[in-house]
Every structure is written in C-alpha cells, then in structure tokens.
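Q: Given only this backbone (224 positions), what sequence would you predict?
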C-alpha cells in the first residue's frame, strides 16, 4: 500500500463519523457554558470520545477531577484489551509506540482489526493519526457551529451511541464469530443484572478472564 494515499480512503468511514461526532462534542461543550478553548485541547490531549461526552456533563455540574479520573478509568478500561490484540502493529520507536497506545479508540480498533488492509505498524500509526485529526477538526467545527444553534438542543449526545451500534454490527458482519457474540451478550447480561453501576468494567473483566482460561488450541479449534 502507498502509505499516505492508501490511508486516506481507508479512513474515510471513520472521517464520516468523527467529523460530525467531534462537532457534536464541540456544540455540547459550548452549550454547557464551558470555556471553548478547552474542547480542542481535550480532543488533542485526552482523545476519548465517550469520556469526552461524559466529561461535558460532569464538568458543567462541578464534579471534581478525582471523580472524573475514576470515571475515565471505568469508561476507558476496555482500551487495555484493544492494545493487547493489536500488539503485532505496535511501532518500534518509543514516540510512535506511545502515541499508538494513546490513540487507539473504538473506531480505530475496529478499522485496524476488521479491514484486513493494515499489515504494518507504519500504516497503523498513520491511520491512528488521521483519525484523531478528524476528531479534532470536528471539535473545532462544532465550536464554530455552536454560536448559530439554539441553546439546549436535544438528542445530540445520542450520536456516539449510534456510532457504537454501527461498529458492533460491522464487526459481527466481518468476523461472523457467533460464539464471541454470544459470549459478549452473556457477559453484558450478567454484569447488567448484578453490578449495573460498574457494567462496562465488570463485563470487560469477565470476558478477559474467559479468554485467559480458554487455551489457544481450543480457540483455534472452535474456528475450524
């Protein structure tokens, strides 16, 4: 793949999602009465879509930084497992390695793991960089748009949920691993019923424990 030219069309689906989603984040941030310049800074230094949406309401309500840090851990704990499954794409250089670990999001992970077109660490790093660039541009556009929109506009925060739903459907269609789908649904059901306050964290931990206890030979046999 011609790295630069190949990455642009490869990341177009993410761009189509990140530009409007980043814009929605920018609009919500300004609409909450927060200082506008923190929004693009957060998209550069934090870059965690779901958490950024959550942070808008928490910061507007005066929630402390410690509570926000705990929320960040719970919301983004799943990213630890993303990195483990993309270890083969980890760049060799220290700076590139750190940025790649930082820049893995749900959408980037989905693209790198399901497209089958990313085979080397350089391309993976560029995909990550382009995707964050789309999010930052969307955030800046949202800040500008917020000035012309009526305050208190409803329903914008559902955009991220819609994108996650689309990503899940595309992963299922690409992998067709119905055992993994059933396992995920079971973990979600158990965590939702018994520990709904820590639903995401507990469901993720359950899945990891199952995978650690399931030998590689058995997993390979299940896919034959």
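A: Predicted residues:
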């Amino acid at each position: 793949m011609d790295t630069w030219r190949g990455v642009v069309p490869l990341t177009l689906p993410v761009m189509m999602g990140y530009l409007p989603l980043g814009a929605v984040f920018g609009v919500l941030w300004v609409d909450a009465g927060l200082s506008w310049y923190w929004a693009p800074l957060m998209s550069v230094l934090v870059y965690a879509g779901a958490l950024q949406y959550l942070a808008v309401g928490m910061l507007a309500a005066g929630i402390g930084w410690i509570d926000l840090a705990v929320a960040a851990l719970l919301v983004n704990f799943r990213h630890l497992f993303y990195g483990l499954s993309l270890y083969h794409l980890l760049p060799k250089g220290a700076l590139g390695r750190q940025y790649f670990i930082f820049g893995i999001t749900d959408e980037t992970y989905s693209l790198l793991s399901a497209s089958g077109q990313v085979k080397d660490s350089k391309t993976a790093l560029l995909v990550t960089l382009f995707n964050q660039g789309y999010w930052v541009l969307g955030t800046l556009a949202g800040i500008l748009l917020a000035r012309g929109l009526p305050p208190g506009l409803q329903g914008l925060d559902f955009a991220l949920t819609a994108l996650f739903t689309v990503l899940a459907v595309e992963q299922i269609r690409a992998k067709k691993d119905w055992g993994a789908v059933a396992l995920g649904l079971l973990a979600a059901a158990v965590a939702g019923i018994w520990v709904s306050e820590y639903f995401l964290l507990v469901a993720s931990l359950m899945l990891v424990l199952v995978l650690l206890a399931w030998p590689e030979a058995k997993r390979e046999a299940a896919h034959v």
